[in-house]
Amino acid sequence: MRTSLVLLSARLLDPISGLLPETALAVSDGRIAALGDAREIRALADSSTTVVDLGGAVVTPGLVDGHLHPVTGAELTHGLDLSGCADLDDVRDALALQASCLAPGAWLRGWGLDPNVFGDRPVEAAALAPVLDGIPALLQLFDAHSVLASDRALELAGVDGPRRFDQAAEVVCDDRGRPTGLLLEDAACELVERAAPQPTRAERRDRLAEVLRAMAATGLTGGHVMDANGDSLDLYAELDADDALPLRLRIAPWCQPGTDDDGWRELVAQQGTGGRLWRVAGVKLFMDGTIDNGTAWLEHPDCHGESAHAFWPDPDAYARIIAELHRAGVPTATHAIGDAAVRHALDSVENAVARGGAGARHRIEHIETVPDDTVRRFARAGVIASMQPTHCCDFTRADHTDNWSRRLGEERASRAWRCRDLWESGATVVLGSDWPIADHDPRAVMAGARHRRPSRDLTRPPHNPDQALTAQQALQGVTRNPAFAAGEEDHAGRLAVGHRADLTAFAEDPLRTPDTDLPELPVVLTVLDGRTTHRDASV
């Protein structure tokens, strides 16, 4: 086989074994063909081989985001970025500046709005009315489970009161039945979204390609995609066919409440379809919403009396579908944030395995607050814990004065994102960003898992520092563990002959780089399937 790529003068860092004695590697047919010294590996090259001298850079298996939404994120992050706004005045100033540039009748789109900016005030459009008067505006809250719509946007969409939905969604209204502007969960958000102008398909494709290239530049070689909404699969297929897909994508379509027998059978039939660098593998379900907007499922309601219900009006229907998918050998990923949601998801998987035997590897996504007995069940049930540590860093505070913590109260807020407890209990912990909810940069994800401090101000104290992961655990969480979750541990996630040539090269050792400096550690080379997707000018 022809050697397509040779990397020389490298420090090879395996996430399990640590630094390897070899200093060079060769790639053939998208796989690591050989590890050795410079003389041995250089001898495998011919005139057609790309040879890169890394000058001592540290090579790891390619980094994988365990939970992201590329197509949805590319659409949601096209507009005014409100994620840096610390209070209402900041938000108003940003909106006023954007509004001054709008053409008459144009919509104002924003994203990343943190509910903490409202302080003790309710999250409602009235707080922003002075700068949005007569302007149709849709502002995505950071959790992507809720939207704040201006009065004009509600008017254009014909939303003038409460609505009934087949899932836990809500048009939030005041005591007189008038919408406040806050829309909870997709079914409610879509009421207004449909009334807003939409980008062309070509614009969406170009934006997606741009986003994926930016991800590759941060060292990402893959992602576990937690949706297949709209025409997203077609977009991935087009990029793949044009050799323009810079990430290897594992995609889980949604299964929503109300799915009948034909619906879940169609999801089963989709499994394994795809292209060279993408494939459908798994199904995504929701057991609840989010704590910040009161739609999580808690064993005891939050301080507002909310978060007391499942996303599925009939949780037993969810359990039956988990059993059917397990019987068909389909892995599932369940969004479960609150303690009741996580417990029900674990119950459902355990019952499915008891009836159908071992097989598919199931996951639970987010797991923001759970008691001790729930933590210990993950390893026993073989359920993957998929977590996003930067959500803890950037959307909560160590003193529990943030919206998430105040809603839960001290006891439950003290159980925030128990990454270390889950790891030490024997569970497989996969790390991700949930982009566009948080920055997709895997260096920031690993850093957050280690320091648990707000990225905007690293001098502030960490939230539950005893739940921090070690540097090696954090690296495993974005390499070996995602491969295991995908059932690919025999050919991915390690630096070994025969494994995929999905590689990330750092200027320095990420394990020795201080956690607060890690997000700025240069990525000098990213390789996917033996093909360079990012190369810094220094190499």
Question: Can you put this structure into words, describing what you see?
Answer:
The longest helix is centred in the middle third of the chain and has 18 residues, at 339-356. The chain has a six-stranded mixed beta sheet with strand order 3-2-7-24-25-26, with helices on one face. It has a six-stranded mixed beta sheet with strand order 9-10-11-12-14-13, with helices on both faces. It has 19 helices and 26 strands. By secondary structure, the protein is of the alpha/beta class. Strand 15, helix 8 and strand 16 form a beta-alpha-beta unit. The model has no long low-confidence stretch (mean pLDDT 95). The protein is globular and about 80 Å long. Helix 13 crosses helix 17 (442-451).
Summarize the structure.
The chain is an alpha/beta fold.
List the helices and strands and how they pair.
Elements: E1 5-8, E2 11-14, E3 18-19, E4 24-28, E5 31-36, H1 38-42, E6 50-53, E7 58-61, E8 63-68, H2 70-76, E9 80-81, H3 88-99, E10 108-113, H4 129-132, E11 137-141, E12 146-149, H5 151-157, E13 170-173, E14 179-184, H6 186-193, H7 201-217, E15 220-225, H8 232-241, E16 248-251, E17 254-255, H9 261-270, E18 278-280, E19 283-286, H10 315-327, E20 332-336, H11 339-356, E21 363-366, H12 372-381, E22 384-387, H13 389-395, H14 403-408, H15 410-413, H16 419-424, E23 429-431, H17 442-451, H18 471-477, H19 480-485, E24 503-506, E25 523-528, E26 531-535
Parallel strand pairs: 1-6, 2-7, 8-15, 9-10, 10-11, 15-16, 16-18, 17-19, 19-20, 20-21, 21-22, 22-23
Antiparallel strand pairs: 1-4, 2-3, 4-5, 7-24, 11-12, 12-14, 13-14, 24-25, 25-26
Keywords: Hydrolase
GO molecular function: hydrolase activity
Enzyme class: hydrolase
